[in-house]
Design brief:
Two copies of one chain form a homodimer. Chain A has 409 residues and is α+β, with helices and mostly antiparallel strands. Chain A has two domains: 257 residues, L-amino peptidase D-ALA esterase/amidase (4-Layer Sandwich), CATH 3.60.70; 121 residues, ArgJ beta chain, C-terminal domain (Ubiquitin-like (UB roll), Roll). The first copy, chain A, contains eleven helices and 15 strands. The first copy, chain A, has a six-stranded mixed sheet. In chain A, a hairpin with a 2-residue loop joins strand 11 and strand 12. In chain A, helix 5 packs across helix 6. At the A-B interface, helix 2, helix 8, helix 9, strand 13 and helix 11 of A face helix 2, helix 8, helix 9, strand 13 and helix 11 of B.
Chain lengths: 409, 409
Amino acid sequence: MHAISPLAPEAFPSLAPVAGVRLAAGCTGMRYQGRDDLLLAELAPGTTIGGVFTQSRTCSPPVEWCRARVRKGKARAVVINAGNANTFTGRDGRRAVAATAAAAAKLVGGKADDVFIASTGVIGVKLPVDKVTGLLPQIHGALAAEAWGKAARAIMTTDTFAKGATATATIGGAKVRINGIAKGSGMIAPDMATMLAFVFTDAKLPAPAVQALVRAAASRSFNCITVDGDTSTSDTLLLCATGQAPHPRIARAGDPRLADFRAKLEAVMRDLAQQIVRDGEGAQKFVTIKVTGAASAEAARRIGLAIGNSPLVKTAIAAADANWGRVVMAVGKCGEKADRDRLRISIGGVKIAAKGEQVSGYDEAPVASHMQGRDILIEVDVGVGRGAATVWTCDLTHGYIDINGSYRS
Amino acid sequence: MHAISPLAPEAFPSLAPVAGVRLAAGCTGMRYQGRDDLLLAELAPGTTIGGVFTQSRTCSPPVEWCRARVRKGKARAVVINAGNANTFTGRDGRRAVAATAAAAAKLVGGKADDVFIASTGVIGVKLPVDKVTGLLPQIHGALAAEAWGKAARAIMTTDTFAKGATATATIGGAKVRINGIAKGSGMIAPDMATMLAFVFTDAKLPAPAVQALVRAAASRSFNCITVDGDTSTSDTLLLCATGQAPHPRIARAGDPRLADFRAKLEAVMRDLAQQIVRDGEGAQKFVTIKVTGAASAEAARRIGLAIGNSPLVKTAIAAADANWGRVVMAVGKCGEKADRDRLRISIGGVKIAAKGEQVSGYDEAPVASHMQGRDILIEVDVGVGRGAATVWTCDLTHGYIDINGSYRS
């Protein structure tokens, strides 16, 4: 529908199989024609799961279903559809989730409670669940270990490119794989950044460890991005660990032997999160906002998001205007502690403001040149403490308005 | 620079003199050519004053100056310039304020501490204060009681029309006048809505009463509007009471004889606030959001602002799309208590959603027709209490992006 984002990676990465994960996708026809919109991920018996979900008070029935079941920590399948968010759909919406889970459970030979569901698309329209349950047996017959690109494409809505990331980590000398796919383009803001993301690993980890790992990595990846400050009713991030890798027994997320796994998991999730920003509706520029000197890491994150969500900052970036005064404004408005007279602002590595005013001899030329590029770096030290965070966002362009005036989400 | 907003009132209202107030404006040339950008309001001896200011942590030297002096409650002049915000300008910025106050004080025969200053325009550029102090004697010579339209025009920045409102109230049988002018178009969000507003009355009121009255009226007017969720460093609202009206002595804001005055003051301030929204950068539609059933009035206001600030809601309105699902999303994201399954949503008076789903037999045609109009009404009952509030906003259009990509605020 829309041109591929100029910020897209060159190609979808090559994702090798994850032992214990098989994928298949198909087209229900409920919204799109000629493209897949239903994904089934089958997980080996013994798979553990953790998840992070939208904080919305009007969350969807699929989110309610998953949140209630993720505590048990067991998973045998994930079913995702991209034609309809199944949100604000009342009792019928809840029945549709249960029917989908039951149908998938029957196919994979597990319990409905071990099937996780995610939906994205229009809000408030009832999901024609028969189209889902009717298609599941067919796509179950096509399950394959290599279908990562197909899977990533099946969950797209306004996305202009499919999003995947992969890494290999070492746990106690054994290699484990981490593969992730995600979708998201607008209605993107913590908590959670609006999106669906599914990360799979063959690591063998108890469910409480999976939960702790996914939550910690989300706080430095998906919860540090924003496109428009709008939070979806459907945000879902799941980490599924199939336990097929032959590494020593790990009992806790804090086990030192997980150091490499933790770093690689965070890298995969950060990569996916940044891809979502790079596909931000109408995005022409990718913006990194580094905040230091805040009262805490959380305060730094909030200040970064205030800058990243400011329509005035984002429209200035779209226009390649080195309008640092709007960064001052955004720091000021967000309610977190900041010292105007110790605030330091740099753009593209060039110091612009310090000690409550523009630095003397400031030359705007190199900053203006940086603003013309695709990758914008804004650094802010708010001068009150040692808290730091990095936030990623995109600019606000005419494309955002075109897309959101024409797409019924 | 930009076409007059299609939501503008037909004409600037006729504002009769307020006894004890004289106005004059002139052109400093610091930013604009061929239009006034400096306003002097002279106030009779004995004038009391109250004010509400931006909550920004990076507020401007003029805001700091006014906040420190408004507690004393006395005013002899207000000086406003529209070419430069004098924000993030360090010690020189503070000196510029003091020099401006001293120059105006000398002219009106009062103390510098009784002169209030407001500035709006670009952030981070030093104010050429000589252009202000040099022009003040000349415009002081032109002070007049009838210059309200000229005054309102002199404080505009990206505004496409001048904003004024007036009312006559009765206090203890005597007539008092209330005149207000305001500017604001973007960077508009509580607290305070970004803007400058100056309200003058000939009522005779002690300063603590003036302060209480202006704060209460702000909470139901300027603090209930949003254009883009961005808060200025310079928001200033002042209420000046010259004490020239021959009404009985009033000691407290709660005096029952002030009932009519309170209502008229709120009406004038609401009128000005709504005019700011009607001049929202790029605005094509004026949106009223009525929230009921919230946990408190403050919760209702926050929910209304979450809806009114949502880029997805605002772009849908711009496209005349009756996309009520995005209202569900905005209610859900804002963190205030809401019950998804008791939530009720109407647009243009047509019930759309209730009991957690779309109402049965919903016909979108009348709602689609309403969305084509200039005035949009969204009503939301969140189903948890008795708190209510009304919030006003505008749509988000290509015009907003054009204006903010080209204006260096």
